[in-house]
Amino acid sequence: MTRKLIVLTDPGQDQAAALLMILGAPQAFEVLGLVATAGNIDLGYTITNCLKVLELAGRSDIPVFAGCPEPMTRRLVTAEHVHGPTGLDGPDLPEPTTAPAAGHGVDFIVDTLRQAESGTVTICSLSPLTNLAMALVKAPDIAPRIREIVAMAGAYFEVGNITPSAEFNVYVDPEAARIVLDAGIPTTLLPLDVTHEMLSTRSRLDAMRALGNRCGVATAEMLEFSEAFDLEKYGWDGAPLHGPCVPAFMLEPDIFTGRSINVSVETRGQLTEGMTVADWWGITDRPKNAFWVRHGNSDRYYSLLNSCLANLP
Ligand code: BDR
Q1: From the alpha carbon of 152, which atom of ligand 1 is closest?
Q2: Mind listing the pLDDT tens digit for each residue in 213-259?
Q3: Measuring CA to CA, which of 7, 85, 136, 306 is 20 to 30 A from 147?
Q4: Which of 182, 198, 53, 87 is CA-nearest to residue 129?
């Protein structure tokens, strides 16, 4: 049975890899639409970047909806220093031949969840959670209709990547992350704790490029661009590959280990805004609200990613 997905995304090279992984697993996923999010770069670019990735994969039939141009209560923080001035620098990707879909991304989330059979639509979040939180505020009745949220968000044992204590997707819109985590929806988080184990080593990128198809080659080239910043920053053999952890978890959850815990988002700390406080040891009596993925098998992860990319043009 395919899983119906709404994908929230602000590509971003790692997210382009995640989108292509999803599109390369049509037996597992039916993508109802993408909601372009302001995050790594401003909304204008993320809309175009979504369209370009779909064009690359030959899937411009999938609608792309524009979400909110800003986080719920803050000014947008972006990450051109990692992803380049367009947010998706690296190889030349095909120009989009289609336009964004009519309507707002928040309304697309609400309408889709209200129209689909309850419990059948999964929210796959690769980005800040602004648009999902806005949808939950606008239409709280959608919460019990969501099958599950699977999100790349947060950090605890690996601490932060945009501040010493916060992971980028949560830092951009901590109020949104808090609303989503407090909504009582089954949620899995793929935090930096696991994405930092998924290093894009030379041999892994070479294997991706050697797939020889345009999606495999372009993904390797995109990741080569974005990994430069992280290679310098961390001094590891490869850069963490964040976004594809989300589809990988849905495709083969036994690649990963974690546990159900309480995760609370710091929205007002002087030094800790956007921190995901993970009660790993059950120290508080706060309710468990997320499955927190802690570790993963990186060889299986990259081999799964490549097997999906190989299915694409
Ligand atoms: C997240 O931040 C973004 O820059 C990446 O695309 C990923 O979604 C990792 O913290």
Answers
A1: 8
A2: 999 999 999 999 999 899 999 999 999 999 999 999 999 999 999 99
A3: 306
A4: 182
Distance from the CA of 162 to the center of ligand 1, in angstroms? 9
Q: Which residues contact ligand 1 via a Cβ below 6 A?
A: 12, 14-15, 40, 79, 82, 126, 152, 161, 167-169, 242-243
- Name which residue sits closest to atom 2 of ligand 1, judged by CA: 168
Give, using CA atoms, the residue closest to atom 10 of ligand 1: 168
**Ligand 1 centroid, distance to 254 Cα (angstroms):** 23
Instruction: Evaluate if pTM is beyond 0.70.
Output: yes
10 Å Cβ neighbour count for 164? 10
Q: What is the pLDDT of residue 1?
A: 85
**Amino acid occupying residue 168:** F
| Residue ranges of domains in the chain | 3-309
CA of 285 to the centre of ligand 1 (A): 30
pLDDT tens, residue by residue, 5-16: 999 999 999 999
Query: In which element (H, E) is residue 47 found?
Result: helix 43-56
> CA nearest 223: which of 127, 157, 159, 306?
306
Fold annotation for 3-309? Inosine-uridine Nucleoside N-ribohydrolase; Chain A (3.90.245)
> In the structure encoding, which two tokens stand for residue 57, read together?
């994969």
Q: Residues with catalytic annotation? A: 242
Phi-psi region of 58 (alpha: psi -120 to 50; beta: other; left: phi over 0): left
**Number of Cβ atoms within 10 Å of the Cβ of 287:** 10
Cβ contacts of 130 within 8 Å, gap of 6 or more: 37, 38, 67, 68, 70, 71, 72, 172, 173, 176
Percent of the chain with pLDDT over 90: 99
